[in-house]
């Protein structure tokens, strides 16, 4: 374990003592003026939940327009799908990088007992990222 067992216990105590961590807000309540940047994590959540969430679409569209930092990593680009209005995304023309459907198959061992799965077919093009 990086940082050792005591380091992990210290970090756990910090997280548990952070009041804000015990009361997460709803995406519908997010006000961009309260934040310096927007970060969309990777993993399967963005592919399953965020890709069709209207609040995510609103947040990403507004953050892109603001010019403030926007970081979308790993499987997170699937969330860009939520920005589409009438098939058009404000990300159209931007170059993005995300997992392809083939990449998870190149890993020697799947994690958590299964492969990660790639982006939904055509997701990059649908979101306006192009090739």
How would you describe this structure in keywords?
two-stranded parallel ribbon; 5 helices; 2 strands; mainly alpha; 131 residues
Structural description of this entry:
With about 130 residues, the chain is mainly alpha-helical. The chain has a domain at about 35-125. About 30% of the residues lie in helices and about 5% in strands. The chain contains 5 helices and 2 strands. It has helices at about 5-15, 20, 45-50, 55-65, 125; strands at about 40, 70. Strands 1-2 form a two-stranded parallel sheet. Mean pLDDT is about 80; it is low at about 110-115.
Alpha carbon gap, first and last residue: 38 Å
Fraction of residues in helices?
A: 25-40%
The proportion of strand residues reads: under 5%
Total count of helical runs of at least 4 residues: 5
Category from helices, strands and their pairing: mainly alpha
Reading the helices and strands in chain order gives: HHEHHEH
In total, how many beta strands?
A: 2
What is the average of the pLDDT values?
80
Rg from alpha-carbon coordinates: 17 Å
Unreliable spans are 110-117
Arrangement of strands in the largest sheet: 1-2
Q: How is the biggest beta sheet arranged?
A: 2 strands, parallel
How does the overall form come out from the CA principal axes? globular
């Amino acid at each position: 374990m990086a940082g050792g067992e005591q380091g992990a216990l210290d970090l756990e105590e910090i997280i548990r003592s952070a009041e804000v961590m015990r009361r997460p807000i709803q995406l519908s309540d997010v006000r961009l003026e309260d934040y310096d940047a927007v970060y969309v994590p990777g993993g399967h959540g963005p592919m399953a939940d965020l890709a069709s969430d209207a609040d995510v679409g609103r947040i990403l569209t507004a953050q892109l327009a603001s010019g403030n930092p926007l970081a979308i990593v790993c499987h997170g680009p699937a969330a860009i799908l939520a920005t589409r209005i009438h098939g058009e995304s404000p990300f159209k023309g931007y170059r993005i990088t995300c997992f392809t459907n083939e990449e998870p198959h190149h890993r020697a061992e799947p994690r958590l007992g299964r492969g990660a799965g790639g982006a939904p077919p055509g997701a990059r093009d649908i979101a306006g990222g192009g090739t």
